[in-house]
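#help-structures
NK: newbie question, is this the right format to request a structure? protein is FAD-dependent oxidoreductase
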Amino acid sequence: MGPPRVQSESERDPASPDARYAQTFPRLSPDMAARVSAYGTEEWLPKGTFLFQRGDRRIDFFFVLEGCIEILDFGPDGEPNLVVEHSEGQFTGELNLFNDREILVSGRTTTDSRVVRVKHADFRRLVTGEPDIGELIMRAFILRRVGLIQHSQGGVILIGPGHGANTLRLERFLIRNGYPHRLLDTEVDPAAGGFLACFKLTPDQLPVVIAPGRRVFHNPPNALLSDELGITESVDPGHSYDLVVVGAGPGGLAAAVYAASEGLETLVIEALAPGGQAGTSSKIENYLGFPTGISGQALAGRAQVQAQKFGARLLISRAVTGIDCERTPYRLRMEDGRTVMARAVVIATGARYRKLDVPQLERFEGQGIHYAATAMEAQLCTGEEVVVVGGGNSAGQAAVFLSRTVARVHVLVRGRGLAATMSDYLVQRIHSSPRITLHTRTELTALDGDTLLREVTWINRDTGEVSTHRIGNVFVMIGAEPNTEWLQGCLELDNKGFVKTGYDAEGHPLASPYETTRLGIYAVGDVRSGSVKRVASSVGEGSVVVQAIHRYLNPMPVGPAPVEMTVSP
């Protein structure tokens, strides 16, 4: 016997599919197999039959009775690479079976095979009708997508300078939408040169995204990339949805989950990716039910799958630019010119961090100035000093997260401390960390650099001391500005632009605290005036508002008062 095999890092990670093979590719019991068969039809398929191919939409679910189905990833060169094989008692599929997006892999039989085909239309019925099987499938599908992402299978290749603003924009879009990809950083990766030569690319054409079929997209806008990769789903402009939720942050996703689970035909429209501002949080530790914490992206990803499980549809990478609220059904206009009709609307567009009033800020946005602190941004500044500007929970989470890999985190706040604006557990960690330095009564005053940020200057307002530092990454997390420009006078806003709810134009209380000054339009989460800017609060508001929507869509008939009757003994 040779020496014991050394486990890879992914195999040692208990959250990795490599360490949870039996859950990623489970084998159903005979009883479960019989129940799955009741939802589909049995078929014999000869060797070499393609059951589905990358780029297909609305594919069927296959359960193997005899034989084998291989799952293939076709790279840019068109050559197939084996992902996994499904044998007797196993099933095909991953997360895109819950939506109408293009699938990422192909599947074909490796021998004559007997399978049960469950039509796409019946698949959701199987998942909801057989809860134990549905739980198995859901867990497997989530782990399979994680595996594709970890091993860069079924995705695209992104080539560009790792610190470049557009490279970061495209990578952030792919990561936050859970789309597998491999980054070739032309600043450090020797393999990048070979790809540039193969595809006859020059540095001035970067960044590029290379998709299967040797398709090359030169610095594509997010919406175009979404369309070309099949992330975007089509909607019928003549169809009126029961509910359209604008924004896929915690509040919007909660509204979608509860609305769809209660039978409302629900569409969610999101400008970038699920999660909203919370989706950029490295770890949320005070959210109920997650004692070890959860990243904002992971929380949003689970909520998105949950909404789709109940039938909600998500239209990603499409910003709503206006709403015709003078007639019903309401018509929402999107940036690509399309319209969507809705009987009821939930506004959950949230808020964004305010920008610093510092010269040259826009020049360095995406190239040293960041508004999120995830693993992607942390990798850019490993071993360096960084600045976090802000005194709220998001700033505290960012500082603690970054302190694990950077040399030092400088936290700059205008106030005299953190206690009034930040949760105590984060305050204590910041004070106790040897890698975090808190600078109170301090403001950033200058930025300098070439193509990238290289130097920052700040001033202490109490002492007047000005200091300049060789720092190339600043994380800005200050205040909140509502994303309400698209409402264009449709609703009443407060003096900061947040949506007023709970009272009509004359100041009379409305039936729901989330109802706006337009009947059938509601606002939840950070975009709502007076809301508590916390993930848990947004989720609560998103779930509770559905009750008011039901009352609006299905009002109780008003009839004569019931007649009191006396029944003789």
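mod (FA): yep, format's fine, and the tokens are attached above. Residues 131-150 form the longest helix (20 residues).
NK: thank you!
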